[in-house]
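hiii so um. not sure if this is the right channel but i have a protein structure encoded as tokens and i wanna go backwards to a sequence. like what aa goes where. can anyone help
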């Protein structure tokens, strides 16, 4: 009896053991099949398109390590240092090299643009200070500077913020005339007062495009003035990817490319910080990709390329009338533009005028901007 019970106990214990083993096997099998699926679900489709090999090569930590847009304050339209129209200080910058407006082109000019120029490409490196350009590792821009006309003392208009200055850069006028006194994306605030570089070029039958990294640029797009308006994303890599596609599909006569990351890293990590210098290094290699695309499309000998910025910065911000906030680099490269350090220091609105002049288009009489003729002097 006692022995029989013992046998029974042993039998039920071994049955229990075999059930436990079976369960364990099931669990292991499930673990092997389900876990990889879960891992795969977690790791497969990254929503950020910027993970291309070139990004890794250019050693920029901004997009790789911090892939969330929210990390960069100025990538969102919340950054509004000058929201009210009444706060707009002096309209014109103190140094105005060309106070009066004369019709262009005119035979009195000693410097004429090359008749070959059919395209103008403007690259704006948002927030780039000329002294940051000196400190950062920028092999491409260093090389371009040996081939073009350069000023390290171009001036922003006031307030020294992104939208106000791009309105001048592309609209040829001081803020009182172009009417963009705000720095946010706000559909209630309307559009720039024209004419703009794009509206003049488009009316003359030329094709135009804007590839930008901030949504507020739509305030600068007048009806029937920009053939391709592309908010490519909030990272330089995304903007340049789209710009390369546009160039490869056929370079528009006027192409504006806006790279936002130098400004974003300035707001997040500080102007002149190692992080911002790294962002400048990345922008440098991306400028190289744009130039390569222009070269491969055989556009370079017909193109005036202007590389500049909208404003500088200091600490984590900009917007003041300080030298740090209002001094920007300005570089023109192209056929008939000999290498030189410019004696003329362009004001923000001179970029649009120089672009129209290079394209042999008339400069609107109401514009403040004057072409930087010195770049065409032999
Ligand atoms: Zn900014």
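sure thing!! here u go:
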């Amino acid at each position: 009896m006692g022995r029989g019970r013992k046998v029974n106990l042993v039998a039920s214990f071994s049955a229990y053991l075999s059930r436990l083993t079976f369960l364990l096997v099931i669990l292991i099998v499930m673990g092997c099949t389900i876990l990889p699926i879960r891992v795969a679900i977690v790791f497969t489709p990254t929503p950020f398109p910027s993970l291309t090999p070139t990004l890794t090569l250019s050693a920029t930590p901004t997009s790789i390590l911090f892939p969330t847009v929210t990390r960069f304050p100025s990538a969102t339209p919340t950054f509004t240092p000058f929201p009210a129209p009444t706060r707009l200080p002096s309209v014109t910058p103190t140094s105005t090299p060309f106070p009066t407006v004369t019709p262009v082109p005119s035979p009195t000019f000693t410097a004429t643009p090359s008749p070959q120029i059919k395209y103008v490409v403007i690259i704006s490196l948002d927030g780039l200070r000329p002294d940051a350009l000196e400190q950062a590792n920028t092999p491409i821009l260093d090389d371009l500077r040996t081939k073009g006309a350069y000023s390290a003392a171009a001036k922003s208009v006031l307030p020294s913020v992104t939208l106000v200055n791009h309105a001048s850069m592309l609209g040829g006028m001081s803020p009182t005339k172009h009417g963009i006194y705000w720095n946010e994306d706000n559909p209630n605030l309307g559009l720039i007062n024209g004419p703009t570089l794009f509206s003049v070029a488009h009316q003359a039958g030329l094709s135009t495009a804007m590839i930008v990294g901030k949504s507020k640029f739509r305030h600068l797009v007048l009806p029937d003035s920009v053939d391709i308006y592309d908010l490519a994303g909030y990272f330089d890599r995304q903007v340049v990817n789209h710009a390369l596609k546009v160039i490869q599909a056929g370079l528009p006569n006027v192409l504006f490319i806006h790279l936002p990351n130098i400004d974003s890293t300035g707001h997040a990590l500080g102007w002149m910080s190692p992080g911002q210098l790294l962002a400048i290094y990345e922008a440098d290699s991306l400028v190289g990709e744009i130039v390569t695309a222009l070269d491969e499309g055989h556009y370079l000998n017909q193109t005036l390329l202007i590389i500049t910025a909208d404003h500088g910065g200091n600490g984590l911000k900009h917007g003041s009338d300080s030298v740090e906030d209002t001094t920007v680099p300005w570089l023109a490269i192209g056929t008939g533009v000999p290498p030189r350090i410019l004696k003329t220091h362009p004001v923000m609105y001179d970029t649009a005028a120089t672009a129209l002049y290079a394209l042999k288009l008339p400069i609107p009489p109401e514009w403040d901007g004057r072409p930087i003729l010195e770049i065409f002097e032999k």
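oh and The CA atoms of residues 105 and 337 lie 17 Å apart.
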